[in-house]
Design brief:
heterotrimer, B: about 475 residues, alpha/beta, Amidase signature (AS) enzymes, eleven-stranded mixed beta sheet, two-stranded antiparallel sheet, 15 helices, about 15% strand, C: about 475 residues, alpha+beta, Arc Repressor Mutant, subunit A, eight-stranded mixed beta sheet, three-stranded antiparallel beta sheet
C-alpha cells in the first residue's frame, strides 16, 4: 500500500502552509515523505499498538489545577506589544486590506 | 566548577566583574573559529545575589526569550525579534545573580542534530573545528566546551542537549519534562521540549537545575518539585543500583556498517559498563524488538513535524519578525516564511502538515503516538525493575562538517526515548575515540532526577572527565 | 412535491468571565484598541495557554442546562488555519472531547413544546477584530482570547420560528445562569445557520448550505426564509444540482445570502490535541456543585407559575421573559404579595413602563417593597385603584416613597361616609331632572352621576362607596 507522492501534492501542501518551495526542495520532501510512508507500513505491523491510545502528553499530570478567574493582568504597554511590528497605525497593527 | 568560582568570588580572589569581562572577551575571540554566538552582550554586568550562581557568566541558547536582547531562534523569521519579557527560566537564573553574556546559536528553531542549521552559519566543535558540535544546542555546547562560560542553558526535544554534550565532551542534562518551565522558550514540539543545562560537571548540572526548576503558573505542564533537591542528593552512594542497556543498540554485530569509529565507541561503552560494575552498580542487557527500535526515528519525525508545523504557524511577520513583501496579507506572510525558513524547516512543515490531515492522522499521527505509548509502557515496566537505562550517547563521535550524517541520524535517534516519556536523562563524557570525545547517557523514570544524577555523579568520579574542556582551539 | 426545511444551528456566545479563557487579560469591552492585551494574546514565541477555571465552570453549567453528557477529562484541541485575526494561526478549541455531548432541550414554539437535540457544546477562544479601511485593515486584539461557548444542534429544527425560539431560549438561559450578557447588540452572539431542503417523506437530507456569522436573531429568521425561497426556486426549476454545499453570508442591505466560498474542497483544520494543556480530571463533585448553582430556568419557572399560582400561560410567559423580571416577581411573592396581584401589576403597568422607556426592571425606583406599599394602600382603602395607578407613576418619576407622595399630593381617597353623603346629596339635589330620568328607566344617567361625583371629588372618592350611596339615594 504505497502512496506515490506527486510534486503537485507537495506544492499544494506547502502552499496551504504559506510557504513557497523550490524544485530541489520538492524533491527532498517527496523523498522524506516516502520514507515516512514506508516506515508507517512497518509500524502498522507492530501488533502491540492495537489496543493502545495515542499518547499526546509524555505523562498524565492530574495535579494541575485551573487558573482562578480573578487572577488578572492589566493590558501590557502598547509600546512593548507593538515594538516588533513593522507596520502599525496608532495602537494597531496595519496590514493590507483583508478581503474574504 | 561553579562552587569553585563561587568560593573565589567570596574570598575576593577574583571579582565577578573580571569573570564576566573575561568571558565576553573569550566569546568575541571565539567567534571566527567556533561561530557559537548569535549575540554577545558586551555590557553585561555582574549581579550580586546570595546564591551559588551569583556573578558567574552564563550563555543562553537563542530560543529562550531574553528581555530587551535579540532572540532569533537562529531563524531568519526572527532575525530582528527583541522580546519585552524574559522566559521564566531566564527570570530565575537572573534572580540567582547569573550574568548572561551571550545568546548561542542553535539548529534553526531546534530542528536538526548537527549544529549546521543555524541562520548565522555552522557552529564548530572546539575539539576540532572541522567537526560538528551536534545539535540543536550547538552554540551552548561549544561555549561551555571552549571554556568561555562554565554553563549554558539549552533545550532538548529528541537529544538536543545530550548529543552536543557528548560530541563536545561535556555534561548535558535534560530533566524530567515539566520540571523547568517552558514559558518563553520558543516551542518546537511541545510534548517533547525540555529545558536543560550544559556544563562540565554533574554537580554543576544539579546546581543550575535546582535554581531554575519549579511549578510556573504560566506553564500548565510544569509541576511542583519543591521536595526535590538535586545538589543535596549527590552522595555518590550507588551500590546495588541497577541499570540496563539495550542489546540491539550496543551490540556491534547488530550493525551492517561497522565503521572504525562505531567499533571503538561500543568498545568504550563496554569499558564504561565495567566501571559501573566496579562501583557496585548492576548492569544487565535487555533486548528490544528491532522493529520497535527502528520505529523510533520515523515516529519522532512524524510527531515533531506535526507539532512544529502547528507551533510555528505564528511566525508570519505580522506582529513580530521582518514583514514580508506583497500586496495582500497572504502574500506578505508567504514571503516572510518562504525567505525566512531553511529547506529543512520547510520539509518538516510539509511532512507535519501531511500527517495532520484528517485522512492521514490515523495512519501516521495516531500510529506514531501509539508507538510512543508502547515504548513508554515498556520503559515504565523496566523502570520498575531498574534505576535507569544506560547507553552510548551516540554511536560515533562528532563527524566532519563536510561529511554525510544521514545514516547516523537514523541510528542515533534512540535518545528520543527520553523525550517520549518525559524521562530525566543525562550525558556525561566517558572517553575518546580518534581524539574526539564521546559520552555515556543515563535515563531514568520520571521525577527520579536525583537518583539519576547521583548515579552519573558517581560514574563521573570514576571516569575522571569532570570539569573537562577543550584546550588549544584558540 | 412538498418540501421540508431542515435547519441546524451553531451559536457562538461570549462568556462573561472576568479574564480571558487562556490568558490573564481582562475580558471587557474597551474601545481603546489593544488595551486588554498581554503577551499570550499576541502569540509571541514561547507563550503558553493558561486555562481559566471560571470559563470551564460556565461551560459546564450551560452543558448541564442543556442536559449534555460531561466528559471525565478536560481536553483542548488546536484548529489550524491561517487568518490575520488568529495570532497563533490556530485556535484553541475542543474537538476530541467537547465539554458537553448529546444534549436535549424543550423549546416553546407557538405554545407547543418542541424537542431540540444538541450535538455538542465546546469551549474555545474568540478571534481578534479587524477594522477595514480603504486599502488597509487594522487589527485589534482586545477580543482575541475571549472565552466563546459554541452550541451545535443536530439538524433537527424545522422552521425559522423554531430556530429563533431556540436562540431566544438559549439566550435567556445564558442570562438566567449568569454565564453571558448574551447581548446581540454588543456582538456577543454570532450564529452559523445550516439550511437544507428535502422532500417531506425523504430520509436523506438535502445539500446543506451554511450561512455564516449572522449577528442577530431577526437576521437568522430572514436568512432562513431567503434560503428556503432560493433553494425552493432552484428545485422547482429542476436545478437541484445548483444547490451546492457552500458557505454564504447574510447581506442585510440586499436582504440576501451571498456566496463566500465553495466547500468543494472543504478546509481541513488538522485538529489535534493541544500538548500545552495537560488532560485535567473533571471531578464529579465539581459537576454536582455547579449543578446546584443553576437557578430554576425559564421554562421550569413558567410551568411553576401556571401550576402553582394559577397564572395564565401568557402572563407566566411575560414574567419569565427575563430573569430580572422573574426575580422581581418572586421577590414580590416573598414579601407576601398575592401572585395574581403581583403578576397583574408587573405584566401590565411595569412592563409597559420599562418597555416604553427601554430600561431594565432593575433600573426602576419602584422595587417590590415599594410596590407592596402601594398595593397595601389600595387594599386597605387608603387609595382608590385609580389613585394607585397615579401613585405608581409618581413613585417611578419622582423616586420618592409612596407614603411621602401620598402626603405630598394629598392622594388619599375619601372613604368617610359623612363626607361622601354630603357631596352626593349636594349633587343629587342639584340634578333633580336627571334623577327623574333615571327613575324613568334611563340607566345611563347613573354613570353621569358617578362622573360628576368623581369630578367633584377630583377622583378621590372611593368608587365602591359612591356607588353604594348613590344607589341608595336613587331608590
Amino acid at each position: 500500500m504505497n502512496h506515490k507522492f506527486t510534486n503537485e501534492e507537495v506544492i499544494n501542501l506547502a502552499d496551504k502552509l504559506l510557504i513557497g518551495i523550490s524544485e530541489e526542495e520538492v524533491k527532498d520532501i517527496v523523498e522524506e515523505l516516502t520514507f515516512v510512508a514506508d516506515s508507517m507500513n512497518v509500524i502498522s505491523e507492530i501488533k502491540e499498538i492495537d489496543g493502545l491510545e495515542p499518547l499526546t502528553h509524555p505523562f498524565n499530570l492530574y495535579e494541575t489545577s485551573l487558573r482562578e478567574d480573578d487572577d488578572y493582568e492589566e493590558g501590557h504597554d502598547i509600546e512593548d506589544l507593538l515594538s516588533n511590528a513593522d507596520f502599525t497605525q496608532g495602537r494597531e497593527i496595519e496590514v493590507p486590506k483583508v478581503v474574504g | 566548577m561553579i562552587k569553585k568560582l563561587n568560593n573565589k568570588i567570596k574570598n575576593k580572589e577574583i571579582s565577578s566583574d573580571d569573570l564576566v569581562k573575561e568571558a565576553i572577551t573569550k566569546a568575541e575571540k571565539s567567534q571566527k573559529k567556533l561561530n557559537a554566538f548569535v549575540t554577545i552582550i558586551k555590557d553585561a554586568k555582574e549581579v550580586k545575589s546570595n546564591n551559588l550562581l551569583s556573578g558567574i557568566p552564563v550563555a543562553i541558547k537563542d530560543n529562550f526569550s531574553t528581555k530587551d536582547i535579540l532572540s532569533t531562534g537562529s531563524s531568519n523569521t526572527l532575525k530582528d525579534y527583541i522580546p519585552y519579557f524574559d522566559a521564566t527560566a531566564i527570570k530565575k537564573i537572573k534572580a540567582a545573580g547569573a550574568v548572561i553574556i551571550g545568546k548561542t546559536a542553535l539548529d534553526e528553531l531546534g530542528m536538526g542534530g548537527t549544529g549546521l542549521m543555524a541562520a548565522t552559519g555552522p557552529v564548530k566543535n572546539p575539539w576540532n573545528i572541522n567537526k560538528i558540535t551536534g545539535g540543536s544546542s550547538s552554540g551552548s555546547a561549544a561555549a561551555v566546551a571552549a571554556g568561555i562560560v562554565p554553563y549554558a542553558l539549552g533545550t532538548d526535544t529528541g537529544d538536543s542537549i545530550r548529543i552536543p554534550a557528548a560530541h563536545c565532551g561535556i555534561v548535558g542534562y535534560k530533566p524530567t519534562y515539566g520540571m523547568v518551565s517552558r514559558f518563553g522558550v520558543f516551542a518546537f514540539a511541545s510534548s517533547l521540549d525540555t529545558v536543560g543545562v550544559l556544563c562540565t560537571s554533574v554537580e554543576d548540572a544539579a546546581i543550575v537545575i535546582d535554581q531554575i526548576k519549579g511549578k510556573d503558573e504560566y506553564d500548565m505542564t510544569s509541576w511542583n518539585s519543591e521536595n526535590i533537591n538535586l545538589l543535596a542528593s549527590l552522595d555518590g552512594n550507588v551500590k546495588n543500583k541497577k541499570l540496563f542497556y539495550i542489546k540491539e543498540i550496543c551490540d556491534i554485530n547488530n550493525y551492517e556498517e561497522k565503521t572504525n569509529e562505531l567499533i571503538k565507541t561500543l568498545e568504550e561503552f563496554n569499558k564504561t559498563i565495567e566501571k559501573c560494575q566496579e562501583l557496585g552498580i548492576k548492569v544487565e542487557e535487555v533486548s528490544f524488538d528491532q522493529k520497535l527500535l527502528d520505529s523510533i526515528y520515523p515516529t519522532y519525525l512524524t510527531i515533531t513535524s506535526a507539532e512544529a508545523t502547528s507551533n510555528m504557524s505564528n511566525l508570519t511577520g505580522i506582529i513580530f519578525g521582518p514583514r514580508g513583501k506583497g500586496n495582500t496579507i497572504d502574500e506578505m506572510m508567504k514571503d516572510h516564511r518562504t525567505r525566512g525558513f531553511s529547506s529543512l524547516i520547510k520539509r518538516r512543515f510539509v511532512i507535519g502538515s501531511y500527517v495532520l490531515q484528517k485522512e492521514n492522522q490515523e495512519r501516521y499521527l495516531f500510529a506514531s503516538a501509539k508507538i510512543r505509548h508502547l515504548i513508554v509502557n515498556k520503559m515504565n515496566e523496566l523502570f520498575n525493575e531498574f534505576d535507569g537505562l544506560i547507553l552510548p550517547a551516540s554511536s560515533e563521535p562528532a563527524s566532519n562538517i563536510n561529511g554525510d550524517r544521514s545514516a547516523h541520524l537514523r541510528t542515533e535517534q534512540y535518545l528520543a526515548i527520553g523525550n517520549f516519556g518525559g524521562y530525566p536523562s543525562i550525558t556525561i563524557p566517558s572517553g575518546f575515540v580518534n581524539d574526539m570525545p564521546i559520552g555515556i547517557n543515563i535515563t531514568g523514570k520520571i521525577k527520579d532526577d536525583a537518583n539519576i544524577l547521583n548515579i552519573a555523579y558517581a560514574l563521573e568520579k570514576k571516569l575522571g572527565y569532570k570539569n573537562q574542556t577543550a584546550k588549544g582551539w584558540e | 412535491m412538498a418540501l421540508k426545511v431542515v435547519i441546524g444551528l451553531e451559536m457562538h456566545c461570549e462568556l462573561n468571565t472576568k479574564t480571558k479563557v487562556f490568558s490573564k487579560s481582562l475580558n471587557n469591552y474597551n474601545d481603546i484598541p489593544n488595551s486588554l492585551v498581554t503577551a499570550i494574546d499576541l502569540a509571541f514565541p514561547g507563550t503558553l495557554p493558561i486555562v481559566n477555571k471560571e470559563a470551564v465552570k460556565k461551560a459546564i453549567k450551560m452543558a448541564l442546562c442543556l442536559n449534555c453528557k460531561i466528559p471525565e477529562e478536560l481536553i483542548f484541541d488546536r484548529k489550524n488555519y491561517y487568518y490575520p485575526d488568529v495570532p497563533k494561526n490556530y485556535q484553541i478549541t475542543q474537538n476530541t472531547k467537547p465539554i458537553g455531548l448529546n444534549g436535549k432541550i424543550n423549546v416553546e414554539v407557538n405554545n407547543e413544546l418542541v424537542p431540540i437535540t444538541i450535538h455538542d457544546i465546546h469551549l474555545e477562544e474568540d478571534t481578534a477584530s479587524l477594522d477595514h479601511y480603504f486599502d488597509y485593515s487594522l487589527i485589534d486584539y482586545n477580543r482575541s482570547g475571549v472565552p466563546l461557548l459554541e452550541i451545535v444542534t443536530d439538524p433537527c429544527i424545522y422552521s425559522p420560528e423554531a430556530a429563533v425560539a431556540f436562540l431566544e431560549h438559549l439566550r435567556n438561559i445564558y442570562k438566567y445562569t449568569d454565564c453571558s450578557e448574551a447581548d446581540t447588540k454588543k456582538g456577543q452572539i454570532r450564529c452559523d445557520v445550516n439550511v437544507s431542503l428535502k422532500e417531506e417523506n425523504a430520509t436523506e437530507l438535502g445539500t446543506k448550505v451554511e450561512v455564516k456569522n449572522v449577528n442577530s436573531f431577526s437576521n437568522v429568521y430572514a436568512a432562513i426564509l431567503y434560503e428556503i425561497k432560493r433553494q425552493t426556486e432552484l428545485i422547482e426549476a429542476g436545478k437541484n444540482n445548483e444547490i451546492i454545499q457552500e458557505t454564504r453570508r447574510w447581506d442585510e442591505e440586499s436582504g440576501a445570502t451571498i456566496r463566500m466560498r465553495e466547500k468543494v474542497e472543504s478546509i481541513d483544520y488538522k485538529y489535534y490535541v493541544d500538548p500545552n494543556i495537560p488532560k485535567i480530571k473533571i471531578e464529579k463533585e465539581w459537576i454536582e456543585e455547579i449543578k446546584s448553582e443553576i437557578p430554576l430556568l425559564p421554562l421550569e419557572r413558567k410551568t411553576k407559575y401556571i401550576e402553582d399560582y394559577n397564572l395564565s400561560s401568557y402572563d407566566a410567559g411575560v414574567l419569565v421573559k427575563t430573569k430580572e423580571v422573574s426575580d422581581y416577581f418572586e421577590e414580590c411573592l416573598e414579601l407576601g404579595m398575592n401572585p395574581k396581584e403581583a403578576s397583574n401589576w408587573i405584566t401590565s403597568q411595569i412592563m409597559g413602563y420599562i418597555n416604553k422607556y427601554d430600561i431594565e426592571i432593575t433600573d426602576i425606583f419602584l422595587t417590590p417593597k415599594r410596590l407592596l406599599k402601594i398595593i397595601n394602600f389600595l387594599n386597605n382603602n387608603t387609595i382608590s385603584s385609580k389613585q394607585a395607578k397615579e401613585l405608581f407613576f409618581l413613585v417611578l418619576e419622582e423616586k420618592e416613597e409612596p407614603e411621602v407622595l401620598i402626603k405630598k399630593y394629598g392622594i388619599e381617597q375619601i372613604v368617610d361616609n359623612e363626607e361622601l353623603l354630603a357631596i352626593i346629596q349636594n349633587i343629587v339635589d342639584n340634578n333633580q331632572s336627571q334623577i327623574e330620568e333615571y327613575k324613568a328607566g334611563k340607566t345611563k344617567v347613573f354613570d353621569y352621576f358617578i362622573g360628576m361625583i368623581m369630578k367633584e371629588t377630583k377622583g378621590k372618592a372611593n368608587p365602591v362607596k359612591v356607588k353604594e350611596i348613590l344607589l341608595s339615594k336613587l331608590k
